[in-house]
Amino acid sequence: MDNQKWSLWFIFLAFLFITSSSAEFLIQQVTEGRGTEYNSSYRLVANLGVTRVLREERPSRSLPYGWEVNIDLKLFVHNPKLCKYLSVTDGFVKRYNDAKKEWGYGQSIPLSTFYNTNEGYIEGDTCGFGAEILIVNPVQQQEKVTFISNPPDNVFTWKILRFSNLEDKYYYSDSFLVGDRYWILGFNPKGVGGGLQALPIFFYAQGFKTNAVATNTWGAVNLRLKNQRTSNHKQIYSAAWYPIRTGYGVGVYTIITFAELNDASKGYLVNDAIIFEAEVVKVSVTNIVSA
Hints:
It holds the Pfam family MATH. This protein is mostly beta strands.
């Protein structure tokens, strides 16, 4: 009986040894050809082709020192009931770097709405979230705007002859260059209607000189109807941003009434001629510089 017990015990130990050896051989087979060197000093677990191993080498860093990326971030909560996505964003670009690696929104959807199954965000105890990431490339160049007071050649004079023979339409001066842009004056000798018995005058932005940066332009101007006998000129001040497109004008509909204009003693209409003057007192000039 004792011999039988010893025999059974010996068979059991032999089975354990064979099983352990087979397991070690199996681990070697699983890791073979996967770039992982088997070492009996490591504790290694293999399962369905997935390997885990302790190593001394530090993980490689995929991002360089001082990295930074700007992201236009939108987060989503899926509503399968409506087949739509609740989009959450604040419109600001998020800057990710070593100091700030996480961005988000503290209140994407009220919990009362999210957990209400009638709203459709949870279906079968399952919910879905998503993110839309647009990388915003850093600006390499930028516009530098300089405001120039009393720029060179900033006074333009326009004399209109045979004023009484002019038709009821707008007339325009020759163009003149101030800053990086051309400008013109315009007026209607019969007024603008609507019961306004007065003379209008407008200042228009035109095209740009060669190699200038075409962009919105600031223009501030003194518009005058010259008194040809005294220094008592009619003057208005106008200042505005002029768009890139040509033909945008700013001015006044009533620089002088027709009654005062036609009064010969006043000195504004002399020998059937009037004189307009534009004095550009400030203009913007734009240049492209490195960011």
